[in-house]
């Protein structure tokens, strides 16, 4: 198949645009979309220190490569990478992330569950099973990422979150009837490093292709503890539906954004955790943050 824009061989077909693209035109289209998302949200400004939350998987590796290309020449924006080692034997290898960063000349920092919390994810699973391990892990990883980022003077956190992730999240919240999550407004909270998602409007398969074209040695395996039955179902439903209605994932992500923008009044304020001092939403009767609650639960308090 020939590229819709030139005579070269196409490497990808975009159902939603009807275009066949060669490698060069695919890269151009991909990076234009990511840049547009950044511009539209004013995600990167002069003086920013941007940290990629680098797991070493395809999405975060791709976002590191893209941002390195975008920001590498700029003197007014700093780029770095942060990797959290949850402690999963045979899966999480922080060395892989280190090699990826160093290969691009991007400063890299790591932190581990073991050092920060005195417990690894392997031990959490051994104690509590896999049912809640994703939730625990997510809470602890976010809290640790945020703490390290603040110590490093990071002003923006870049995630490899893609269109499929975004659409799945919106649909999952709809299916759970979770109005609070759907309408929680985007806002800046003191001490909480804001997140940016340059690939928010780019389908997962194109992020994967971009990673394959540009990054060597990223991690192909998913987390061995990930269960996420609802997400797996939702992914299946969405993929099937999108085959017939190619704009669906994009529409869902835009819907999610519109809902969050319009409800400025919702939600209570933010305070700080009484124990660890990290920012947390103020809820009645709870003086400690989710991460501290999870740690209490794990330590059997
Ligand atoms: Zn072309
Ligand atoms: Zn806390």
Topology (SSEs and partners):
Blueprint: E1 12-14, E2 19-21, H1 23-41, E3 49-53, H2 58-71, E4 78-85, H3 94-104, E5 108-112, H4 113-117, H5 121-128, H6 133-151, E6 156-158, H7 163-176, H8 179-183, E7 195-196, H9 204-214, H10 229-244, H11 248-262, E8 270-272, E9 279-281, H12 290-298
Parallel strand pairs: 3-4, 3-6, 4-5, 6-7
Antiparallel strand pairs: 1-2, 8-9
| Helix content bin | 40-55%
**Ligands in the structure?**
zinc ion
Query: What number of structural domains do the residues give?
Result: 2
Mind telling me which CATH architecture of the largest domain this is? 3-Layer(aba) Sandwich
- The N- and C-terminal alpha carbons lie at a distance of 62 Å
Strand line-up across the major sheet: 5-4-3-6-7
The CATH class of the largest domain, by name, is Alpha Beta
Structural class: alpha/beta
Mean pLDDT: 89
Fourth-level CATH superfamily of the largest domain: HUPs
Task: Give me the Rg, rounded.
Answer: 20 Å
Count of separate DSSP helical elements: 12
Give your account of this protein's structure.
The chain has helices at about 25-40, 60-70, 95-105, 115, 120-130, 135-150, 165-175, 180-185, 205-215, 230-245, 250-260, 290-300; strands spanning about 10-15, 20, 50-55, 80-85, 110, 155-160, 195, 270, 280. The protein has two domains: about 30-265, 3-Layer(aba) Sandwich (Rossmann fold), CATH 3.40.50; about 270-300, no CATH class. It has about 300 residues and is α/β, with parallel strands linked by helices. It is globular and about 65 Å long. One zinc ion binds near residues 273, 276, 288, 289 and 292. Keywords: ATP-binding, Metal-binding, Nucleotide-binding, Transferase, Zinc. It comes from Methanoculleus receptaculi. InterPro entries: Ncs6/Tuc1/Ctu1, Rossmann-like_a/b/a_fold, TilS/TtcA_N, tRNA_thiolation_TtcA_Ctu1, TtuA-like_LIM_N. GO terms for molecular function: ATP binding; metal ion binding; transferase activity; tRNA binding.
């Amino acid at each position: 198949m020939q590229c819709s824009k030139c005579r070269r061989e196409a490497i990808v077909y975009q159902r939603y645009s009807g275009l066949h693209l060669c490698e060069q035109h695919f890269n151009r289209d991909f990076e234009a979309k990511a840049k547009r998302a950044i511009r539209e949200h004013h995600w990167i400004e002069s003086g920013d220190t941007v940290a990629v939350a680098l797991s070493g998987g395809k999405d975060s590796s791709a976002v590191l490569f893209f941002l390195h290309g975008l920001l590498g020449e700029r003197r007014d924006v700093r780029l770095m990478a942060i990797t959290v080692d949850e402690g999963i034997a045979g899966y999480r290898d922080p060395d892989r992330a280190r090699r990826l960063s160093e290969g691009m000349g991007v400063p890299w920092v790591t932190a581990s569950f073991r050092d920060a919390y005195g417990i690894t994810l392997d031990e959490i699973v051994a104690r509590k099973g896999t049912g809640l391990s994703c939730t625990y892990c997510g809470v602890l990883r976010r809290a640790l990422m945020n703490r390290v980022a603040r110590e490093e003077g990071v002003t923006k956190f870049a995630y490899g979150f893609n269109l499929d992730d975004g659409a799945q999240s919106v649909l999952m919240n709809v299916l759970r009837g979770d109005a609070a999550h759907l309408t929680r407004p985007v806002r800046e909270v003191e001490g909480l490093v804001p997140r940016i998602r340059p690939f928010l409007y780019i389908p997962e398969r194109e992020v994967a292709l971009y990673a394959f074209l540009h990054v060597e040695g990223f991690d192909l395996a998913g987390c061995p503890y990930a269960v996420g039955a609802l997400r797996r179902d939702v992914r299946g439903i969405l993929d099937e539906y999108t085959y017939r209605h190619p704009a669906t994932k994009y529409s869902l992500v835009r819907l999610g954004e519109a809902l969050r923008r319009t409800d400025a009044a919702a939600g209570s304020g933010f305070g700080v955790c009484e124990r660890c001092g990290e920012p947390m939403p103020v809820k009645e009767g709870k003086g400690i943050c989710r991460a501290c609650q999870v740690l209490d639960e794990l330590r059997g308090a």
